[in-house]
Specification:
Layout: H1 3-16, H2 20-40, H3 46-69, H4 73-87, H5 96-110, H6 118-129, H7 135-147
Helix pairs in contact: 1-2, 2-3, 2-4, 3-4, 5-6, 5-7, 6-7
Amino acid sequence: MSLLQRLDVDLKVAMKKSDSLRTSVLRMVKAAIKNKQIEKRGELFEEDIISVVSMLSKQRRESIELFSKGGREDLAEKERQELEILQSYLPRQLTPEELDRLIIEAIKESSAEGIKDMGKVMRILMPRVKGAADGRIVNQRVRELLEKI
């Protein structure tokens, strides 16, 4: 079953169960996918859909951070619940060890010699970790490993 089909089925189930939070999140995902489809002017592939869900997850993480800083734990908690639902549609997240292994492979592959070659490493690495790791964490970890070279 494709991710889009799974979203459709889960939306119907959530509506039947009167799960308003899940229904709301899945409708938001479907709308974002539809907007991306219009923007692309064609059908979306599985990786495009994962990219949309990943973008929505990133937005939730940023909102959680901002709401927490602003002392709005009620809103931060709602965003956490939405993030949890969104992440159930993303591939399994990489462990720090798996991420480090991929980064080291990319560093070797790009022949990076320091922080100045970060762009080369990121170009190789990001397609491999798309949807499976937060870009900000990847960026931070690449920087740390390149500084040790």
